[in-house]
Amino acid sequence: MSQIYQQCLTLSNFLKGWGCYRSACPDDGYQWENQATDLASLLDHLHINSAHVVGSSAGGPISMMFAALYPQRIRSLVLAGTGLNLFPQGEAVSDLIRQQIVVLEQAGAEAAFEQRPAGVEASFESFWVRPEAEARGRLTEYLEREQRLAQQVQSIPKARRVQYYAVELRCMQAYMRRDLHTSAQQITCPTLVLHGSDDREVPLAWGEELARTIPTPQLHVIAGGGHSLVHRSEEGRRVVIEFLHSVAHPQCRYICR
Predict the structure, then answer these.
(1) Residue 193 CB-density burial (10 A; 0-12 exposed, 13-18 middle, 19+ buried)
(2) Per DSSP, which regions of the chain are E strands?
(3) Which tens digits make up the pLDDT trace of 174-203?
(4) Label partner for 4 (CA 20 to 30 A): which of 75, 116, 140, 231?
């Protein structure tokens, strides 16, 4: 990220309920419209009229909703490793999460927590991250990190862990309840769709579908690239910087991701 930090003033916006051990965890409000309004409120608080927005992975749908709802406040949009539907029917992990949401709604948060899938101690994130880490040759590093996280969460009171678990399910449920096609078709700002050809978390086909849906996108596929290209790929960051230079007003230096 250092190349971007050196050339742009960046703002990082943590999504509510996603990676909940480090973000806000209200009981509700995870709908995309609310999350987009959160971003607009952040810009208001900082007295920023408009910004270049980078939405990576789960941040992509929120960024697209922001672009659709606040077109006057977005100068350009980068969508990296994301798609229109991150939890498709018939996909094994997505269906497992749906089953957990049913337990949450029918039996409550504690019952859902007690019936959580094996290996889910800190977050459902492990279901997606492990295949990506293995493909990139970082499996040992990933397993060590997961072990540390599992040990750390044991020190958190059970009531808080139950709350975090329920909130993560509610957040993912919000992603499942909305069709993003209409919002994507309303995007009018310059848009770059950036994807890795070997993304194990969000398949390339999802990014290609996204590029077909947005009216005037630039699609850039990085050969052999994986997930989180803005964070982990020097080529990915170069492509983003070149895109921003091509569309940026000289006095606009803000990026939210």
Answers:
(1) buried
(2) 9-11, 51-56, 74-80, 191-196, 217-222, 254-256
(3) 999 989 999 999 999 999 999 999 999 999
(4) 140
Cα separation of 11 and 257, whole Å? Answer: 7
Same domain, 59 and 74: yes
Pairing outcome for strands 217-222 and 254-256: unpaired
Q: d(Cα 246, Cα 5) in Å, to the nearest integer?
A: 17
Residues 73 and 194 in one domain: yes
Over residues 32-74, the pLDDT tens digits come to 899 999 999 999 999 999 999 999 999 999 999 999 999 999 9
The residue segments making up the domain with residue 102 are 92-177
Strand, helix or coil at 156? coil
- List the CATH number of the domain containing 75: 3.40.50.1820
Domain count within the chain: 2
The whole-angstrom distance between residue 71's C-alpha and the CA centroid of its chain comes to 20
How many residues appear in the chain?
257
Q: DSSP 3-state assignment of 196? A: strand
Q: Report residue 10's pLDDT band, with 50, 70 and 90 as the boundaries.
A: confident
- Are residues 206 and 144 both part of a single domain? no
Strand partners, 193: 79, 219
pTM score, whole prediction: 0.90
Q: Which two tokens stand for residue 134?
A: 């293995």
Do both 172 and 188 map to the same domain? Answer: no
Quick one: which of 95, 53, 77, 64 has its CA closest to 183?
A: 64
